[in-house]
């Protein structure tokens, strides 16, 4: 039987715990979440009936600071997935060196089948159940799968009503003007590019000489392509999903893909207009063709499990590096084969940590009630991402391990040290 997400998170931890030779008490503490809340959320539906939704909040570890992690709305949400994601948030915040722990929340529901008013009821009901366990100095939620800035504002409003005070720093991902941070939209994609630039430097290469293919044209991928264009790297192909046809296509052009141009012919569902693309000189190829292009760098920034043992042999021989923009885009089997081939894989929880880094900046700005300009946010983001990346590259070189192992080693070591100093372990 295949592993559940939480079993996978535990197995990854166990492997690195061995590399770090961690004592048993540290393993016992970090293999499991410190706290979990499971609760019912009664909501009056538009037809007058009452429905009870199940909600969760898991705090994996807060040794380094308040928990941080999104709230997912999903019809197939499970506590197992929420536990795994909370664990991964602990490592992501630690590798990014943010003073935050890891948490995650969820509700079993399908917002596509609920009215706005019913969704508002779930948001307010969710926070009523955890209002005393979440907060600015305890645990800070954010948007995730199928939740957005509006959901965060409803949750904030209810939380502030319960506590009788303004506390916008208790939740992030809010719209700008409602406590949100400028620069958040582009933060993850830009962070991917800063990390790529630093990874190339370690090989004596320059970003402006790099050729890149990107999978996806959503939030992360778009801002990745935009900054790659700005900094002079050549994007030769972008693959994205066509909602009308129900499959993905790769748009490739030898002179390079331009963000503004591709964006101008993409509808709000992310589907590219094929006729206009052809007029602009883009070749329309099959969905997987992005990985077959003669580029040096691949950036999967769409889905998990995009690069598998079954398709990784298609990756062009020119490819030397994969920078994971999405979460979990390379399966462990594919990773082993590609490392054998000599590819460098920059792991997701380092490469895409720009999003959570900017969420941390949002929290800081809310707490000061003083908001920075976009340039200031992006400048701080770049500095933070570069120092996180450099630490991982140095660890990989010193210990002769993969970048993923190095990132895990740094993250787990930081959390262990914090827990040890607190007296939670010896
Ligand atoms: P999104 O929904 O905005 O974009 C997803 C993109 O994937 C769309 O452009 C879609 O066309 C494309 N896509 C879907 N199936 C595809 C396929 N088979 N082939 C090619 N393209 C396909 O999502 P996003 O926010 O950009 O997130 C992308 C990934 O990055 C996810 O794994 C997410 O968990 C991760 N991530 C996002 C953030 C963030 O701040 N948005 C932060 C960290 C990690």
Verbal overview:
With 426 residues, this protein is an alpha/beta fold. Among the domains are: 35-169, Leucine Dehydrogenase, chain A, domain 1 (Rossmann fold, 3-Layer(aba) Sandwich), CATH 3.40.50; 185-346, NAD(P)-binding Rossmann-like Domain (Rossmann fold, 3-Layer(aba) Sandwich), CATH 3.40.50. It has 14 helices and 12 strands. It has helices spanning 5-19, 24-30, 79-95, 116-130, 149-163, 184-202, 219-231, 259-264, 274-279, 332-340, 348-351, 354-368, 374-399, 403-421, and strands spanning 35-44, 50-61, 67-74, 102-108, 139-143, 211-215, 234-242, 247-252, 283-286, 297-300, 321-323, 344-346. A 7-stranded mixed sheet has the order 9-8-7-6-10-11-12, sandwiched between helices. The longest helix is centred in the last third of the chain and has 26 residues, at 374-399. It is globular and about 60 Å long. The mean pLDDT is 97.
Features of the shown structure:
426 residues, alpha/beta, Rossmann fold, 7-stranded mixed sheet, 5-stranded mixed sheet, 14 helices, 18% strand, globular, binds nicotinamide-adenine-dinucleotide
Shape type = globular
CATH architecture of the domain at 185-346: 3-Layer(aba) Sandwich
Number-wise, the strands total: 12
Topology as a string of helices (H) and strands (E): HHEEEHEHEHHEHEEHHEEEHEHHHH
Structural class: alpha/beta
Q: What fraction of residues sit in β-strands?
A: 15-25%
Evaluate the radius of gyration: 21 Å
What is the number of helices?
14
Largest sheet: 7 strands, mixed
Distance between the termini: 36 Å
Q: Which kinds of small molecule does this entry bind, naming each only once?
A: nicotinamide-adenine-dinucleotide
The CATH topology name of the domain at 185-346 reads Rossmann fold
Task: Tell me the helix content.
Answer: 40-55%
Strand order of the largest sheet: 9-8-7-6-10-11-12
CATH class of the domain at 185-346: Alpha Beta
Low-confidence stretches: none
Mean pLDDT: 97
Full CATH superfamily name of the domain at 185-346: NAD(P)-binding Rossmann-like Domain
